[in-house]
Amino acid sequence: MHSKRLAATLATLGALCAQPALADTTWTWSYSGAGITAGGSFVTSDVADAQGFHEITAITGTRNGDAITGLYPTGSAIPGNAPYALDNLVRVGPQGQVTVHGFGYATASGGYANPYYADFLSPPVYTEVFTTASSFDEVPISFSASIVPEPASIALALCGLAAVGVRASSRRVPT
Predict the structure, then answer these.
(1) Eight-state DSSP code of residue 116
(2) 5, 80, 118, 173 — which has fewest CB within 10 A?
(3) In whole angstroms, what is the distance from residue 130 CA to residue 53 CA?
(4) Domain ranges, ordered by start, for the chain
(5) What angle (nearest 5°) sits at the alpha carbon of residue 76, between those of residues 74 and 82?
(6) Given the DSSP bridges, would you call strands 24-33 and 36-45 parallel, antiparallel or unpaired?
(7) Beta strand pairing status for 89-90 and 54-63?
(8) Could you give the CA distance from residue 25 to residue 141 in angstroms, rounded to a whole number?
């Protein structure tokens, strides 16, 4: 009877802890350099390519207090930086989190930013190109991005711990 109750408890935990398939992933990102501070969040595709990159599909945040108004289209160059087309890709890791093409976004004041990984330099560095109607700046930056744990993932981990606890408590010898 005890084993039937344990099986029923574990089945209930399993049903409550089932994780739905994810359609996208949320990230936090930030970078800084001489006179630059930028950060916010990305939404990316859930599936990575062969090199581990996810396509950025949406962006929010600020650059030097100026609101980011949107992601610049994949395959195009930010204004003033042609012919360098963006690929809007990001991956987990300490170096090369964005590609040599990087991602691009527009700001509320009319500027355009293109952070990218200059792997062709020695040593490789992250760099930001920032353009306006009358200026062009290119500055080395420190860049980081990380995946925000989904609430469902956290709940699944807690359910796993609960199942282990239930199983361990069922093995105790009564006193």
Answers:
(1) E
(2) 173
(3) 23
(4) 24-151
(5) 145
(6) antiparallel
(7) antiparallel
(8) 24
Residue partners of 21: CB distance under 8 A and separation at least 6: none
Measured CA to CA, the distance from residue 175 to residue 113 in angstroms comes to 68
Q: How far apart are CA 138 and CA 123, in angstroms?
A: 17
**Maximum alpha-carbon separation in the chain:** 81
pLDDT per residue, tens digit, the chain (175 aa), is 555 555 555 455 454 454 444 469 999 999 999 999 999 999 999 999 999 999 999 999 999 999 999 999 999 999 999 999 999 999 998 789 999 999 999 999 999 999 999 999 999 999 999 999 999 999 999 999 999 997 644 444 445 555 555 555 555 555 5
Strand-pair category, 105-107 with 112-118:
antiparallel
* Cis peptide bond upstream of 123, omega within 30: yes
d(CA 128, CA 145): 15
Q: What is the pLDDT of residue 157?
A: 46
| pTM for the whole structure | 0.75
**At residue 101, what are phi and psi to the nearest 5 degrees?**
-90, -30
Q: How is residue 97 written in tokens? A: 């989190």
